[in-house]
Design a protein that fits this description.
Blueprint lengths: L6 H17 L6 H26 L7 H17 L4 H25 L4 H20 L10 H9 L1 H21 L1 H11 L1 H6 L4 H29 L1
Length: about 230
């Protein structure tokens, strides 16, 4: 385990948990762990998608606004009569479209990702404020459906851990992951050996946006149940 690059992070987490527990015996209580999950699970999901973009050498500043926009798309789609599942799929498709736009502008038009995603961040923020009127929404669904999408703290934790583990496997054990690492490590060399670097970057932008949108879905479902 000491050879793993992640071992230092795990060690730091263990040491911090031990310190906080020693200073406050309630730190590792079930109620406090649930509170920590409430504030960190969705952030972890967003971060997992952002890592994929960073690894391939780019940056996505708009994913936080995608996180805010997707629940409204889901809500209005459901209000128009779509089933909850279809509304979520539509909302995540919209998130993927935003990622596709970010990736296409960045790679095909050679606009720096910082500039591209900063622009879409402000655009999405304005769109969200316009369609919401500045007020939050609470999409409704069946209790079982809500629970499966983050209605309880442990479900949100399960989603966050599953996504992190899957993406870790993708990065280290799949062709797409290795091509992502190669693209971020040396763009010219990756292109010369036949890696489709433009496609790799666009797909990672799409993945990042979808995960940001999915985090928004989970957060809204959690809010509905409380």
């Amino acid at each position: 385990m000491l050879r793993w690059r992640e071992a230092s992070i795990l060690l730091a987490c263990v040491l911090l948990a031990a310190y906080f527990q020693s200073t406050n015996p309630s730190f590792l209580s079930v109620s406090n762990i649930k509170n920590l999950i409430d504030f960190t699970a969705t952030t972890a999901i967003i971060a997992a998608g952002e890592v994929m973009v960073l690894v391939c050498g780019e940056l996505d500043l708009s994913v936080g606004m995608v996180y805010a926009l997707v629940p409204f798309i889901m809500h209005f789609a459901a209000a128009d009569g779509l089933p909850s599942g279809a509304a979520i799929v539509l909302a995540l498709a919209a998130a993927g479209l935003i990622g596709l736009i970010n990736g296409a502008i960045t790679t095909l038009l050679s606009v720096p990702a910082f500039v591209t995603t900063l622009g879409t961040m402000f655009l999405i923020n304005g769109l969200t404020l316009t369609i919401s009127g500045g007020f939050p929404v609470e999409p409704h669904a069946a209790a079982a459906f809500t629970t499966a999408l983050g209605g309880i703290a442990w479900t949100r934790l399960a989603w966050a851990l599953t996504i992190a583990i899957v993406l870790q496997f993708v990065l280290n054990r799949t062709r797409f992951g290795l091509h992502t690492i190669a693209t971020g490590g040396n763009l010219v060399a990756a292109a010369e050996v036949g890696i489709k670097v433009t496609s790799i970057k666009i797909r990672n932008f799409v993945l990042c946006s979808i995960l940001g949108g999915f985090a928004g879905v989970i957060e809204r479902r959690a809010g509905t149940s409380r």
